[in-house]
Amino acid sequence: MADNIEFADDAPLFAQSQEFHDVKAAAHEHLLTRIEELAAEFGRWSRQAINEFVALEMDSFARLRRIPLNESEVRTIAEALTKELAGYGPIEDLLSDPGVEDILVNGYRDVYVSRHGRLSKIPVRFSDNAHLLRIVRRILAPIGRRLDESNPMVDARLPNGGRINVIIEPLSLEGPIVSIRKFRKDPLRPDELLSNGTFIPEIGSLLEAAVTVRCNILISGGTSSGKTSLLNALAFHIAEAERVVTIEDTAELSLNHPHVVRLESRPGGFDGAGTVTIRDLMRNTLRMRPDRIIVGEVRGGEVLEMLQAMNTGHDGSMATVHASSPRECLYRLEMLAGFAGFQGTESSLRRQIANAIDFIVQIGRLSNGRRRILSVTEVTGLSDDIISTQELYRYEPVTTPEGEELDRWDTLGIHPHSPKLARFRQSISASSGFGMGGSRDGGLYV
């Protein structure tokens, strides 16, 4: 089967039939009765022991009820029941599949997965919405998060490092809506992103130099565009002697660095008491002697503390922002600062932003699922109360006469302006080849 969910013989068709769900539901009730008889003993069993127990009970159940199932169908139901009792039911295989990036469940009938940036519907379903809700609560149980009518939305970090978002009735009209984002255990390295075509060596060299000399960098892009993966990769260039503090709403970053302090915000209780926001964490971080501060996503009042930190000696800080372009990224910072109650003039705010940010890296997910750096833009200062920028690289794919689309980055050969990169400018001026000058027509191909 294309989606790496393995069944025997004609099991895929049978597993999607109503007969399968009816028999499984009846067998599940039978198993629950048997488990009640075993009491605490069942809780000590291994996964293998549960598997053998379910296989024996399912075989006996089918014979006693004279249910017309062949051996393959009995085995298919037994495997599903094992996942039901000891795992996460229909989505257990998806959770363990390294090729799956996102699992999206729209009610009990519709399940979609994202692979290599592309969504597809798969032939997996739950018995009903109550079944789906039971599996969701099993996922949430170790996290200690409540999901009910008084608290119908949950956004939480999974023990394995992924993230789950659930919204239920009455807010959802189609039953429970579940979105699970999975993250790699080992973050992508810069050379892996290079080999994937996310950027070209010239851009990689510039970003490596920018991180090494402690430029402040914002990574801008849309949902699932690869912002977190790029941020993880850039962290490979941070010196080991530096202390890095990460601040996130839901911990997603996985930095390959020996000295990382990870902080995560906390939602309040039923009455809102106990809330700890990213802004609260940002203020506290300034007292923790950080060399670099990395904010998982800037989307609120913490933008003021972040700009203050970048302007008062915490160079080399990085963050991600939801925005569709570098210019929109700057507008979003202004808007968030206004919402946070910035008291100064528009001119003074823009001056702070221009002084704080060195580079904006725009990344996006293309229609074919590929993730590419779309723009590398340097913030050069303030001119006539407008934040000045210069675009060093822009992604402009070209199509060959044969219809093949080639990745291509346009460059005007402009050197980065920042004084921090003076040595980098000297090295690329002295080097031969493209350097920052690009090819003769101003483009770089891969």
From TrEMBL:
Superkingdom per UniProt: Bacteria
InterPro entries, per the entry: P-loop_NTPase (IPR027417), T2SS/T4SS_dom (IPR001482), T4SS_GSP_E_ATPase (IPR050921)
Molecular function, one GO term: ATP hydrolysis activity
Domain Bacterial type II secretion system protein E: 86-363
Pfam families attached to this UniProt entry: T2SSE
Family stated for the protein in its record: Belongs to the GSP E family.
Name of the protein described by the UniProt record: Pilus assembly protein CpaF
The organism of origin for this protein: Paraburkholderia lycopersici
